[in-house]
Design a protein that fits this description.
Blueprint (H helix, E strand, L loop, with lengths): L1 E9 L2 E6 L5 E5 L6 H13 L5 H8 L30 E7 L3 E10 L2 H12 L16 E9 L2 E10 L2 E5 L9 E4 L7 H13 L4 H7 L8 E7 L2 E7 L5 E3 L5 H15 L4 E4 L11 H14 L3 E5 L3 H13 L5 E9 L2 E7 L1 H10 L5
Parallel strand pairs: 3-14, 3-15, 9-13, 13-14
Antiparallel strand pairs: 1-2, 1-4, 4-5, 5-6, 6-7, 7-8, 10-11, 11-12, 15-16
Helix pairs in contact: 4-6, 5-6, 6-7, 7-8
């Protein structure tokens, strides 16, 4: 689990530091204050060594990955990763977590001919020997990821040109699992089915059943059914046949995706943008209770965002009434072009809600 996280020169943030992170963390704030960007920064840090993830987070926003126009580069989606679209800066992400201790990631675009020549010389004698030599800032964009953790440090480079994208050396797997659930669009049914299947293998399929019964009390059984070559989770609700989960409403699908992600991220992290999407406010306390129970059962840390005061109040109520208040609210706010975070513990949040203060 993360105990703290700091980022600089990423998206809308010049500098931001979070401490007092809990098992379940809810991030609030007005529009365009950086809630989604903070989740993206955490996702990149969870990925540890893979600079290609920077292109993946763009896809989560529906942005095309790269675009090249010879003889030079036009502005691409990569520039949006840097504060003020200034890609001469270096993005720095620093996190303290149980798995790796303190890990620092630095992301930058390499343009200087001398540094490109050094990288070219290095990869020419490396084991992969990709056919991208010589390097030129006019024809190839090079994204460098440098990491430091414990007594280890190293660099990985992603090369983007008209031939496509490749990374060298091949990065190792991240130190723990991490899943990102975007606000719009849904996880592919086959992906949810695969994650549910892994819970079945472990004999933990009832975790999802019990969570979904919060929304649909008639639900008695879940099963994966393959129809027309597409696996999909189905449920039994007393109609004499199994019903595809998507037919039971957006909220069922959203909660199912969240729960199976948490169950497959044991000792890892799940990031959820706009957690309340598709969920009626009346069931939010029960949903939060289910999220807390599943996160504890699998030792998973959860980061979510919201625009909803009802969602914040429901989370506080659910954790306050439970045995563990392992929840924290972090509110982002803009002050004089600087974004800062205000963190609410149980006592402070209870007082703020009772007084009717703005905590969204």
């Amino acid at each position: 689990m993360y105990q703290s996280f700091r980022l600089s020169n990423f998206r809308c943030f010049r500098e931001l530091a979070l401490s007092h992170l809990e098992r379940v963390n809810l991030i609030a704030g007005v529009n365009n204050v950086g809630k989604t960007a903070l989740l993206e920064a955490l996702f990149l840090h969870c990925g540890a060594y893979n600079p290609e993830l920077t292109l993946h987070v763009q896809g989560l926003r529906g942005i095309e990955r790269v675009k090249i126009q010879l003889p030079g580069w036009v502005e691409t989606a990569i520039e949006s990763l840097f504060s003020g679209f200034d890609s001469s800066k270096t993005v720095e992400l620093v996190g303290e977590n149980d798995a790796t201790g303190r890990r620092i990631l630095r992301l930058r675009i390499v343009r200087e001919p001398e540094q490109l020549a050094q990288i070219s010389e290095f990869i020419q004698h490396g084991p992969d020997r990709p056919e991208i030599l010589p390097l030129s800032s006019e024809a190839t964009q090079v994204l460098e990821l440098e990491y430091e953790e414990s007594k280890r440090r190293g660099k990985y480079h992603t090369f983007i040109d008209q031939k496509g994208m490749r990374t060298t050396p091949i990065p190792p797997p991240p130190p723990f699992p991490a899943f990102y659930l975007a606000a719009r669009g849904r996880i592919p049914h086959a992906e949810d089915s695969e994650r549910f299947g892994k819970l079945e293998i472990m004999g933990r399929q009832d975790v999802l059943l019990q969570a979904l019964q919060v929304i649909e009390p008639r639900l008695r059984r879940l099963a994966t059914v393959v129809a027309s070559g597409l696996p999909m989770i189905h449920g039994e609700i007393g109609l004499g046949r199994l019903v595809p989960l998507p037919f039971m409403g957006e909220g069922m699908g959203r909660l199912a995706s969240l729960v199976v992600a948490v169950g497959n991220a044991s000792n890892g992290v799940v990031l959820v943008d706009e957690v309340e999407n598709g969920l009626h406010h009346s069931i939010l306390p029960k949903v939060w209770r289910a999220i807390g129970e599943v996160a504890r059962a699998f030792n998973t840390q959860v980061f979510t965002t919201t625009h909803s005061l009802e969602c914040i109040a429901a989370a506080h109520k659910a954790f306050a009434e439970g045995r563990h208040y392992d929840f924290c609210l972090h509110r982002l706010e803009r002050r004089n072009e600087t974004i800062r975070v205000v963190t609410y513990d149980q006592e402070t949040l209870a007082a703020a809600i009772e007084a009717g203060l703005e905590v969204r």
